[in-house]
Amino acid sequence: MTTGTRYFVITSLLVLTVGLGAGTVAYLGGFPTSAFSQQGGPDELKFVPADASLVAFADVQHIMTSGLRQKLRAALPMKKEDGHQQFQSHTGINIETDIDRVVAFVAPVHESSSSQFNGSALVIARGRFDAVKIESLMREHGAQVEDYQGRRLLVGIGHGGQAAMSLAFLEPGLIAVGASQLVQKAVDARDGGASILTNGEMMNFVDDLDSGNAWAAGRFDVLASHARIPDGVREKLPPVSWFSASTRVDDGLSAVLRAETMDEESANSLRDVIRGGLALAKLRASSRPELQQLTESIRLGGSERAVSLSFDLPAQVLDALGAFASQHHRGAKALVPSRP
């Protein structure tokens, strides 16, 4: 994998993570961190294979220009500008202005594939891209140009001379980067055929997420396999088969998390675990009006095998929580003894 393509994937997935709430955690804790078709979901889903086990979407421009993100930038001075410049120098892509939205997914590839990029991830981004500049920069970092079905593929070469990752323009303003085999499948999908749009089970989740400007849905075992969950915690989790998460980032933040368990008993067990956590959180927040607003906005719901958790934080609540976090941070710094 070349440095340039690595930055593209990492940054695109980071945008999704921020959209799904990581930025809010940073804002409250004091440390760094839709365009839909009538059929449901963004148009880019036609390039996602039917057997994808995890799919996510972010309206990058909406999130980047939202009032919440502007507050984050003002409240949390970060060195991210250096990261943006480094990313742009390797790919020619300005995250702030060039990318409109992204779709990312995880799908299986054959073990015989020569891909070394964990064999499963692809990011599709729509925006304004300078193809000549991107190709020039990537070739400077070792990428080779290949022809596939009439499309130019920029193939990063990994250790041992094998293809590590590919990048291709699927159509004007639409770029795909990730595992070489999945990029080729995306190119093939231009002519139609089976896609995630034909996966009824997955699309049932996607259709419920259209109110958010960032969302993710998929099999929970895939999520758990990529997350750093302690073994002790993993063993105690009720059996969850599917999950979805949707958030809307504007001046405030709202989100809905859903899980579908293997049976009704598992769902009841999961609700009990969540109720216990919420009760503890409300107890600890009882002396803090700012935190009470946060805990009182959390709602637990669902029926039978489904469990849902939602919250809605308007701008004024986020402002109060941000002020509380800043005050707490200043108080903690005041307790640190100065050096002689």
Structure description:
- The chain has 340 residues and is an alpha+beta fold.
- The protein folds into 2 domains: 195 residues, no CATH class; 117 residues, Gyrase A, domain 2, CATH 3.30.1360.
- The chain contains 13 helices and 12 strands.
- The chain has a 12-stranded antiparallel β-sheet with strand order 4-5-6-7-3-2-1-8-9-10-12-11, with helices on both faces.
- Strand 9 and strand 10 form a beta hairpin.
- The protein is globular.
- The N and C termini lie far apart (48 Å).
- The N terminus is likely disordered.
SSE order: HEHHHHEEHEEEEHHEHHEEHHEEH
Summed over residues and divided by their number, the pLDDT gives a mean of 75
Compute the number of strand runs. Answer: 12
User: In terms of structural class, how would the helical and strand content be classed?
Assistant: alpha+beta
The total tally of domains equals: 2
Helix count equals 13
Shape summary: globular
Helix content: 40-55%
Span from first to last CA?
Answer: 48 Å
Taking all Cα atoms into account, the compactness measure Rg is 22 Å
The residue ranges in which pLDDT falls below 50 over 5 or more consecutive positions are 1-38, 112-119
